[in-house]
Design a protein that fits this description.
By secondary structure, this protein is α/β, with parallel strands linked by helices. Helices cover about 35% and strands about 30% of the residues. The protein contains three helices and seven strands, in the order ββββαβαβαβ. It is globular and about 35 Å long.
């Protein structure tokens, strides 16, 4: 279910799609859960469009949390597109950091994060475990 206000985008998780908590005013963004939609492009298009319009006027400091247990190939591509939008924001002078969460035994998800970090040239912080909502408040 999509819940959008002026500077916030909230989408609840389903069995196949992740939860989104985006707050452009505060500069805190989180994607958590599983990302296995049939069409990543179709699912992520409104999210990419929202970021396109909100990132330029977002907080100067952006902290983006990605905590996915699973993702399919089309979701992987769309997450990369999100990261490219963050790279563009960084290039305009915003301070951008990405927190990448992975299970201790999930070296594949860690490697995906490391590959993304290399591709977009944004500092990633890798954290073992799952994202907790309380972390949205921590700078």
């Amino acid at each position: 279910m999509l819940n959008e206000s002026k500077n916030k985008l909230m989408i609840e998780a389903t069995d196949l799609t992740p939860k989104f908590h985006f707050d452009a005013s505060e500069g805190v963004f989180a994607i958590t859960g599983k990302s296995l939609p049939d069409s990543g492009e179709l699912f992520y298009k409104p999210i990419l469009d929202w970021l396109e319009t909100k990132l330029p006027s977002s907080s100067q400091k952006i902290k983006f949390h990605i905590s996915l247990d699973q993702m399919n190939l089309s979701s992987s591509k769309m997450i990369l597109f999100i990261l490219y939008k963050l790279k563009a924001a960084k290039e305009t002078g915003k301070i951008v950091s990405v927190w990448w969460y992975h299970a201790s035994e999930d070296s594949d998800m860690l490697e995906v994060g490391e590959d993304y970090e290399f591709m977009v040239d944004i500092p990633f912080r890798f954290k073992v475990g799952k994202f907790e909502a309380s972390e949205l408040l921590v700078a």
